[in-house]
Amino acid sequence: MAKITTKKIVSLSLCILTLLLISCSLTGNPHPNLPPPDAKPSLARINNRPENPETKPFKGPLEIGVHDAVLMALENNRSLKVEKRKAEISSTLEEMERAAFDFVLSSKVSFSHKREKERFPDNTTDTLTGEVELSKLFPTGTRLSSELTWG
User: Fold this and answer.
1) Nearest Cα to 95, choosing from 106, 87, 84?
2) Residue ranges of the alpha helices (H) in 2-150?
3) Nearest to residue 106, comparing CAs of 148, 139, 141, 150?
4) Can you tell me the distance from the alpha carbon of 71 to that of 86, in angstroms, rounded to the nearest whole number?
5) Are 140 and 125 in contact (CB under 8 A)?
6) For the residues of 15-51, what is the DSSP string, one character each?
7) Would you say 76 and 114 are in contact if contact means Cβ atoms under 8 Å apart?
8) What residue ranges of the chain have pLDDT lower than 70?
9) Are 104 and 136 spatial neighbours (Cβ–Cβ below 8 Å)?
10) Which of 32, 96, 99, 125 has its CA at a distance of 20 to 30 angstroms from the CA of residue 85?
11) CA-only gyration radius of the chain, Å
12) Are the C-beta atoms of residues 96 and 120 closer than 8 Å to each other?
């Protein structure tokens, strides 16, 4: 059996850490430029007033033109908001379906320590084994994989 050194353990740990960092960096927000779902249109724009969180709500009737009234009605129409989000939702579903064909990276590491007391002096054996596999499924149903095993 090969003797396990600290250098081997450190290099194996670095490999696993690198693989974990790579797998974590592949995920993220698919639509970073979209406004938050609870964003609401502002009436300050219609009345040509600067937006200020300390501004008190208007009292009395609003004085707006027909163009601004139609624009405000369109901004507050729930059906239009839903229709606007349907394209984003369908693109998210497409991304989820395409994810079945992403690369899959898996790893396995095991360490064992065996001591035999029957012999003199005590005989100890340390074993470190590992396995790293990278695979990809193609739309044709073909699976391609590469595997590295040591130990």
Assistant:
1) 87
2) 6-25, 66-75, 78-98
3) 148
4) 21
5) no
6) HHHHHHHHHHHT---S-TTSPPTT----STTTTT---
7) no
8) 1-4, 15, 17, 19-58, 119-122
9) yes
10) 99
11) 30
12) no
Measured between alpha carbons, how far is 63 from 49 in angstroms, rounded to an integer? 13
pLDDT for 13 equals 73
Q: Measure the CA–CA gap between 64 and 11, rounded to whole angstroms.
A: 69
Contact by Cβ (8 Å): 93, 108:
no
CA-to-CA separations, 96 to 84, 102, 144, in angstroms, rounded:
20, 10, 21
Provide the sign of the torsion angle of the four alpha carbons 33, 38, 39, 41, taken in this order.
Answer: positive
Using alpha carbons, list the distances in angstroms from residue 29 to 88, 92, 101. Answer: 13, 11, 19
HSE of 126, CA atoms in CB hemisphere, 13 A? 7
According to DSSP, the residues that pair with 150 across neighbouring strands are: 130
94: tokens are 């497409």
